[in-house]
Amino acid sequence: MTEQDRRPRRREARRGAAPTHSGVKPLELKIPVTEMLSEEGVNAIHQASMRLLKDVGILIVDYPPAAETFKQNSASVEWVDRVHTYMNGDTSEVKGHLVRLDEETLMHFIHQVPSTFTQLARNPTNSLTVGGRNMIFAPVYGPPFVGGLDFGRRRATLEDFHNFAKLAYMAEHIHHNGGTLVEPNDIDVRERHLDMLMAHITLSDKCFMGSVTHADNARDTVTMARIVFGEEAMQQSPATLSLINASSPMRFDDRMFGALEVYARARQAVLVTPFLIAGAMSPSTMAATLAQQNAEALFGICYAQMLNPGTPCIYGSFLANIDMKSGAPCFGTPEDALALYGGAQMARHYKIPYRSGGNFTGSRIPDAQSGYESASTMWPTVQAGVNFVLHAAGWLEGGLISGYEKFVIDHELCGIMARFVNGIGLTDEDFAWDAYDETPPGGHFLGSSHTMRHYSTAFYQHNVFNMDNYEKWESEGSHDTYKRANAVYKKMLKDYEPPAIDPATVDELNAFVAQRRTELRDRKSRTEWKK
Amino acid sequence: MTEQDRRPRRREARRGAAPTHSGVKPLELKIPVTEMLSEEGVNAIHQASMRLLKDVGILIVDYPPAAETFKQNSASVEWVDRVHTYMNGDTSEVKGHLVRLDEETLMHFIHQVPSTFTQLARNPTNSLTVGGRNMIFAPVYGPPFVGGLDFGRRRATLEDFHNFAKLAYMAEHIHHNGGTLVEPNDIDVRERHLDMLMAHITLSDKCFMGSVTHADNARDTVTMARIVFGEEAMQQSPATLSLINASSPMRFDDRMFGALEVYARARQAVLVTPFLIAGAMSPSTMAATLAQQNAEALFGICYAQMLNPGTPCIYGSFLANIDMKSGAPCFGTPEDALALYGGAQMARHYKIPYRSGGNFTGSRIPDAQSGYESASTMWPTVQAGVNFVLHAAGWLEGGLISGYEKFVIDHELCGIMARFVNGIGLTDEDFAWDAYDETPPGGHFLGSSHTMRHYSTAFYQHNVFNMDNYEKWESEGSHDTYKRANAVYKKMLKDYEPPAIDPATVDELNAFVAQRRTELRDRKSRTEWKK
């Protein structure tokens, strides 16, 4: 990253920053990624998704500009307005522009996606390169509720958002501050994005995500990022990354495509993610689900490239499956794990960074189920070589709850993974020859020089998990992990100190936010920020 | 398996059996196994272990017959009797036969190990083929304690043993009944093996493990198996599988090698497993730990082949690491996962079935830590292609506790894995073309014919985990997984019905057991069973 394009006061701000961490680095996978599909399998899914895009098509709802863009790029666009009747007599409205795309057109644009890009952080040592062998952990995104041992579950507030922003900043193995850590329900829905962006920018100096709830909110995100990073820097490298969900199956709407357009034109990174609960938003079979996911993700990415070739994009996957008995979404299932691996191979096939996984669970509290399901998603996530892992900490109840304790428990697994990806060292020192000179058959290695040399770094050191024996554990109150994690997150919040920021930047941000609040409250149209 | 060698009453017994299950089949891995090491890495570990066997050697303690066997097979055998002084002044006694083995001698015997074998079960539909792409789950082995929500932790009794034998029999995804499910502490230690064997044979009709606590106990195991299976059948295929632990580092003792000798001569399967807590029984680096594990496992397997070439063997790995702060063993760590993968590659390199993994945790109860750690061992276990997974259900507190609830919670993960190993189907039906004909963009697939066709089998159905929303969960008592599992295991025990067994077989077993009890109580030497 270059700083030459920044105005002096921003350079000042960065020099003045005294980050808690010496700099966040993505994990770098030194282990082989696991390939679940054969080359033929990858090709079969590619071909199936081409067929879906050509024959079924993608419906664009309430957003004619996108339909026009596709039309100008030789896609077939048809206006449809009909009522579909299902086998069982149910109906649904199908209204919008149906876009059909051939392989050649699609792939022309897909080839323009950069295979890696660097997202700028306010503290440049926290900037993150996305793609390749890099893996980035970001917190849970989107829950309307918070959960905790002290209070159960309640609707989240801005104070909760601040707390999770602080936890994300403090957490050593969380590389990215994420986006909608919780929904701040106590703030007017029209203004929330301003408060969330202010929190990410001022309470942390890691990378953050932009707002996608309206095209104007995307514009606000870009403006606030420009106040911090400068427009020229953001043309070179994105300072925001934003989550564009398909309205699956085979559909995008004005809200998401409106936001995508703003970000693409500003050359900010977008993460295009089909939202698939297999059995409902996609068929119940994983091959079809992968083909549909591929079709939807590539379609959104293609749109970004049509708007601004070379726009940094991430191929997203959010994939769960429905419980066929209750209709509830299920997490940590074998089907989801398989599809997670398959999706990674598809993204690699197109040389596009991949987002998937997280510490997913359907459980409402961090209990045993939560542990099994979370780990059962994270192991495939890491071994698939996912580049951007949203929901890596804090997720509960299928994404409805941001859990305080869950955040720090998940963080333990993130730390475990940070060691795992280094693989097995095979140097002479790793073979410990001198340890065998010092240790006889039947002896022990505790006191050998080799063990002493590796004492402090040999093994992952636990933070929340503990290995105390039953007697010690019982004498200290028989606390389960949930209880122990309660103390851990509270200590983190207590120890929190904000990273330094230039007061002039904060002033300008506040002035812009004040202007926008006024406009939003008075229902006036948005004025571009000029200072 | 052939039945022609059985006496009529045994064939009768088997015809009379009315197993709860229609037959237990190992999982068959249709997914690729994950290779963590390169070919060069595998070779480097092989070479390092050859160097350890040649230069350091393995100490055989209190068992001259084994030293003699190695000597007769051109190994270098040296009597050592010295006191070793560590760097810090601590001492340990090194007394026994030190056996040094060259690569050529070792590999001559290693090449005689069968790459697969079938362990006979009393119900022939439950016989299990070990090796290749097969994966077998067996319960926890060895804990002196039981744990449960109703009582906490207490010393295990024979009643507990019976309960776990019943649970193992009932559990759909547990293929093998295992061995020392708990230590029946209320039974005299000399006689316990008789009660445990009787329980496995009469309460279940799945495969079981033999006793290794004394050579005579191994003889009792073989005799009881012969009463059930007949000697000739057991020459063709083993009816027992027994766990031979190295007394690591680089040491075997009379107890384990004595039992191994009995089993090898009776052509019964042995599972040779170094017992490694890295940092204590092996160096703190994984390359050295893998090389040492390889040396110890191959040494024990080599001994079995020297005694009886072609004896079915499993290459075992039990590998944890020490917490360098507290000295406690840690489970589910990144280091253990890496070594688990590496060990699988070594065993495959020699074409020997591999044992490793399990639902390991250091936690004392099935809480979140327990879930993360268990799953963090089981995912590598399954993806490494482990053939025999001991401790697949019930393990708590580093193996000190057999947990009732833990058993059924772990069993859920076993069920998840049973689906995962099937991989991603890629047939036309899997691509669900007709579902897209019936479902418009923006619609839902719930009512499509394709979904209806796959309704009942599309996704794994949970047994202990549940996906209820917060309101339903709260209204039903806010039970965590631990509490839910309590009801599940109790229902299983309540529903238990023993598999049929020929009364004449039971009579003979009882007569033999009575004879042995008398001998053991009177401290008389063992008489071979003749009927």
Question: What would a concise description of this structure say?
Answer:
Chain A has 19 helices and 20 strands. Chain A has helices at residues 8-16, 39-56, 64-72, 103-110, 158-170, 192-203, 215-229, 231-236, 254-265, 286-307, 334-349, 368-383, 404-420, 428-431, 433-438, 449-454, 470-475, 481-495, 503-521, and strands at 27-28, 58-61, 76-85, 91-100, 116-119, 128-131, 134-137, 145-148, 152-155, 241-245, 251-253, 269-273, 275-278, 313-316, 318-322, 329-330, 354-355, 388-389, 395-396, 401-403. Chain A has a 4-stranded mixed beta sheet with strand order 3-4-2-11.
Describe this structure in words.
The structure is a homodimer of 531-residue chains. Chain A contains 19 helices and 20 strands. In chain A, helix 2 (39-56) crosses helix 10 and helix 11 (334-349) runs parallel beside helix 12. The first copy, chain A, has a 4-stranded mixed beta sheet with strand order 3-4-2-11. The first copy, chain A, is α/β, with parallel strands linked by helices. The first copy, chain A, starts with 7 loop residues before the first helix and ends in a 10-residue tail after the last helix. In chain A, 43% of the residues lie in helices and 16% in strands. The longest helix of chain A has 22 residues, at 286-307. Chain A has helices at residues 8-16, 39-56, 64-72, 103-110, 158-170, 192-203, 215-229, 231-236, 254-265, 286-307, 334-349, 368-383, 404-420, 428-431, 433-438, 449-454, 470-475, 481-495, 503-521; strands at residues 27-28, 58-61, 76-85, 91-100, 116-119, 128-131, 134-137, 145-148, 152-155, 241-245, 251-253, 269-273, 275-278, 313-316, 318-322, 329-330, 354-355, 388-389, 395-396, 401-403. In chain A, strand 5 and strand 6 (128-131) form a beta hairpin. The interface between A and B is large, with 140 and 141 residues.
